[in-house]
Amino acid sequence: MIDTRDYAPILVRRFLNLGNYDRRQIINELELASDEERQLGDQQLLKLVFSRAKEQRLLERLWELVESTHDDRLYDTNPFVGR
Q1: 82 within a domain of the structure (yes/no)
Q2: How far apart are CA 54 and CA 50, in angstroms?
Q3: What is the pTM (predicted TM-score) of this model?
């Protein structure tokens, strides 16, 4: 079994390396923040998004969206499958 703690920083880094538009699109698609919450500062919003993704068991989908947006095939395996 893959230890997802090793991949959490990778997911955060890859998410942050996306453009602002792409990050907002992913947040909207997964409904990870309300309209009001989207106005938070970057660090606060980032903490909220990842906390909520974990709580709602959306890390697998978040990984998929981030990786498909990068489209560089750097990570072929989703370490968050079923989590």
Answers
A1: no
A2: 6
A3: 0.90
How far from 80 is each of 6, 36, 53, CA to CA, in Å? 11, 28, 11
In this structure, is residue 83 part of a structural domain? no
Q: Give the rounded distance of the alpha carbon of 67 from its chain centre.
A: 9
Cβ proximity of 66 and 11 under 8 Å = yes
Residue 79's SS3 state is coil
Specify the number of domains making up the chain.
Answer: 1
Question: Does 42 reside within a domain?
Answer: yes
Q: Reply yes or no on whether the pLDDT at 2 is more than 70.
A: no
> Whole-angstrom Cα distance, residue 63 to residue 41?
22
Mention every residue, 6+ apart, whose C-beta is less than 8 A from residue 7.
63, 79, 80
